[in-house]
Design a protein that fits this description.
By secondary structure, the protein is of the alpha/beta class. The protein is 38% helix and 18% strand. The protein has helices at 21-35, 48-53, 91-94, 112-127, 149-154, 179-183, 204-211, 220-225, 236-241, 276-288, 312-317, 319-324, 337-349, 362-371, 387-393, 404-409, 415-419, 433-449, 451-462, 468-487, and strands at residues 5-9, 39-45, 55-61, 72-77, 84-89, 139-143, 162-167, 175-176, 197-198, 201-203, 214-217, 246-248, 299-306, 328-335, 354-358, 374-377, 397-401, 426-428. α5 (149-154) links the parallel β6 and β7 (162-167). It is globular. The protein binds adenosine-5'-diphosphate. Adenosine-5'-diphosphate (ADP) is lined by residues 20-21, 24, 303-305, 332-334, 360-362, 365, 384-387.
């Protein structure tokens, strides 16, 4: 494919700011696209934390069409890459403590609609070459509801770039009170149920789903699932209507940041040929979490947002069985207060077995991936999931629910897959306590009784390749399709 100018619109990008998988994608995909000779540039809000971490930050533009004078565009580099990043600097909206979407107490910012509307309008100024940059994208690649207004507002420009909308998680939709149609000065064609109205309110994500030239989500299985009532979050009808524009592209992972052979966040390194370092990481992890340093006790890890989606209640429900079977569990995460409290209580009730750290800690996440024997991911739904892919590379056998990206990345240790040496993990179907425990039991029995088979499962997993290069090529095909749509 020829070189395209691509504007990548995202509300988070690792390592500048991260709450979840979108940040990892925004940190990895643009670099992979650059390696495919694309001129890709990121645009993101100038959050306080991101401003601190961005490299070589300077002013790019003061005067952007359709934006107040208080908004400016800064330009820098995504750290450790050659990818250009524009930060939308509107201090009243973004220069504050807390997260990208919520305050330090985890409540959504009250002005999120205004914040991501100004972000979208700035992206549009860049997309239409009205931001004083003398650069115009051929493709505008939007991600999740925070950028949903971009395809919606761009639709009114006769000569516009092609638009892509990637769904990283359909559960988060950017739903606001209908008064915002007026407050945000949205044009009349965006009103009504054929526009952005949803259950009487304003839905940002509909902007992407209705108006983007092509839509994708982050795994083939999730792309099929979201067209069903069960997984559609009320948008399955619309997604079916646009099914000819909807595809699934599995996320890649950044093996430069996630490689146990040279991960700077680990004390002991290892690879598929030499797992001694993994044993040392396990001991260290047990020590860090004040668990008995027994190499024979299976150690389970879990890293993630502590929310219903991730099946945290299912994990809590198998705690008694884990304890009875002399299993250790280390959890790192933050999220719903109820799950945090119940996990902390479990760690008090069973101090030698369950250890919990509430918070967000990149380096601890790497240490858990490296030190655990198995990784729990019993998600109710999972658009792609990255932790199970990191787990595979770190020799930490994933135990996952057979849904979304988990279904697409883990090969179950059934008899025939073990025989053919293709097994990489353990899968179960229903989101129930019984099924999670049965899958865990299957894993524990092979771990304890069949060390050779266990070793085979580990090394098969470590050799899987989910690097960004493949995914980037699929995105190039998608861009091609979107360009073809607007040219006809
Ligand atoms: P989601 O995007 O639904 O949160 P993913 O598995 O796609 O789930 O991506 C989550 C990313 O965030 C992974 O890189 C994971 O390691 C990281 N992560 C989640 N919670 C934490 C935490 N508490 N501390 C450190 N990293 C975390």
């Amino acid at each position: 494919m020829a070189t395209n100018n691509i504007l990548f619109v995202t509300s988070e990008a690792y390592p500048l700011i991260k709450t979840g998988g979108l940040a990892d994608v925004a940190g990895g995909l643009p670099t992979a696209l650059k390696e495919q000779h694309q001129d890709v540039r990121i645009i993101m809000p100038a959050y306080r934390e991101a401003m601190r971490k961005a490299e070589k930050l300077g002013f790019a533009s003061f005067n952007m069409e359709g934006l107040p004078e208080t908004a400016r565009l800064l330009e820098g580099r995504l750290p450790n890459t050659t990818v250009k990043i524009y930060l939308v600097d509107s201090p009243a909206h973004f220069d504050r403590p807390g997260g990208p979407y919520s305050d330090p107490d985890n409540h959504d910012w009250a002005d999120n609609a205004e914040r991501f509307a100004i972000f979208a309008r700035t992206a549009i100024a860049v997309a239409t070459n009205k931001a004083g940059l003398d650069w115009q994208p051929d493709i505008v690649h939007c991600n999740d509801w925070q950028s949903g207004l971009v395809p919606a507002l761009l639709a009114q420009y006769p000569k516009r770039p092609a638009t892509i909308f990637t769904i990283h998680n359909l559960a988060y939709q950017g739903h606001f009170d209908s008064s915002h149609f007026k407050n945000l000065n949205l044009p009349p064609y965006l009103r009504g149920i054929d526009g952005l109205e949803f259950h009487g309110g304003l839905s940002f994500i509909k902007g992407g789903l209705i108006f983007a030239d092509m839509i994708n989500t982050v795994s083939p299985t999730y792309a099929a699932e979201i067209r069903t009532h069960h997984f559609g979050h009320g948008l399955d009808g619309l997604l079916n209507h646009r099914a000819d524009r909807l595809v699934g592209i599995l996320n890649g992972v950044d093996y430069k940041a996630w490689n146990p052979a040279n991960d700077p966040l680990l004390k002991h390194h290892f690879d598929a040929h030499n797992l001694e370092g993994k044993e040392n990481n396990k001991r260290q992890l047990q020590k860090k979490f004040s668990l008995p340093q027994q190499s024979e006790s299976p150690l389970l890890g879990l890293v993630g947002r502590l929310v219903e989606q991730k099946g945290i209640d299912l994990v809590l429900s198998i705690v008694p069985q884990l304890v009875q079977n002399n299993v250790q569990l280390v959890v790192l995460g933050s999220g719903h207060k109820r799950f945090q409290a119940e996990l902390l209580q479990a760690s008090k009730d069973y101090p030698g077995h369950i250890a919990v750290h509430v918070g967000f800690d990149e380096s601890m996440a790497h240490q858990i991936e490296a030190g655990a024997d198995m990784f729990l991911m019993p998600s109710r739904f999972e658009p792609c999931g990255l932790n199970q892919i990191y787990s595979l590379r770190y020799g930490t056998v994933p135990i996952v629910r057979n849904t979304g990206g988990l279904a697409d990345t883990v090969i179950d240790a059934r008899e025939e897959n073990i025989e053919q040496k293709t097994a990489t993990g353990f899968k179960f179907e229903q989101a129930s306590h019984e099924e999670l425990w049965r899958a865990t039991e299957r894993a524990l029995s092979i771990y304890r009784d069949k060390p050779k088979v266990w070793r085979q499962i580990i090394t098969t997993g470590m050799k899987q390749d989910f690097s960004w290069e493949q995914s980037a090529k699929h995105y190039l095909d998608l861009y091609h399709l979107a360009l073809a749509k607007i040219r006809h």
